[in-house]
Amino acid sequence: MRKSIGGFFCALLLTVTSSMTVYGTEQNTSDPAGNISLYAAAAVLMDADSGRVLYGKNADTPMAMASTTKIMTCIQILEHADLDEMVTVSAYAASMPKVKLYIKQGEQYRVGDLLYSLMLESHNDTAVALAEHVGRQFLPEELREKPVSEYTAEESRMAVAAFAALMNAKAVELGCENTWFITPNGLDATETFSLQDGSTVQKEHCTTAAELARIMAYCIRESPQKDAFLNITRTGNYSFSANGRSFSCYNHNAFLTMMDGALSGKTGFTNKAGYCYVGALERDGKTFVVALLACGWPNNKTYKWSDTRELMEYGLEQYFYRGFLEEGIRFDEKLLQPVPVANGQTDILGDTAYAEIEVAGRRALEDGGGESMADGAGEERQGLLLREDEQIRVEYQWVKSLEAPVERGTKVGTVHYIVDDTVYLTEDIVTAESVEPIEFAWCLRQIAGRFLIKK
Question: How many CB atoms neighbour CB 15 within 10 A?
Fold first, then answer.
């Protein structure tokens, strides 16, 4: 480790890295998840706050995801358009297959109304009309100025492709490496790309159970539009009028009435994808997301509900919040030792200077009477949902020496709280005091002091 302090400091990493287990030291070999039996070909139970996968079955296998795609469509529309903006319908959007709202070329609809059509009834024509509305903003100027009602099918596909690029960019931002969006409605699709060497590669519209759950966690916990997303997806029914017609949308997410604390969800089906579902639940301070892919085909429509209930109940029964900084788990500061400081001032000439070190923020935490649990997007939680048999491993290290000058609060090491080889919390080890460098005036004072003492 190299560290610069005021241009003078250079230190070596402490040669001994200590590690201790402070929770669940006696490993329970039983596996509560071993009793889970699911219909879905791929499934995930995720802690929405940490992003940790608590249960996975083929969790990282790319598969078609049908209309569960629309959770990404919805959140991107919310983040890039105002609810009161007006959407003009193209011939291409109106041509989408069932399930559809039967919008017509040239009609205009309010974005907010169409979002209920999108998420409650899963209308495919609505999805394309919304995607064109946002995607056209990224087209060449002549197409941005051209009325959407006059778009050719190719121009409409260009607008949809621009919107899909937004969806894929967000997927990358969320760490979804095996997700690829082509359509905003989830209809099965394949794209062919030409490489520089002349060869081609095909990509399918797909995701994984783990990444679909990650996207839902973003929609309900992290997006600046999470409240609007929840408001839409939790609505039981919604009616609106436009273009001389009246429309009624009914929520087909049966999970909303299945379990206390149900937050949101989206169903999906294509012949290729089978029945798919992604849903969220919040209860007892825990927030779970379940994602299911290929959960049966026709005549198995209810499989997704039984799988969802089984995974949600498993999470509620087996996982409990443990704070990393609670008594008996958090790193013991008594293990810290002062760090020698080369060329640092001391009370007696010739002595070695030392800098006391501490864990940053601990004093304020103790003065405040306890630990805090983050509950907002971008904030670091100071705990994790764990089973009784799971362990938190604490690893810590700090530098072996320092070079004066050293300022108080200088970072010299770290404490990591680790579960399953993933670091979930990091504390900084810092200097608790400053150490000034040896300089000419200090030397004169030391010499004068010794001379006077001798006299």
Answer: 7
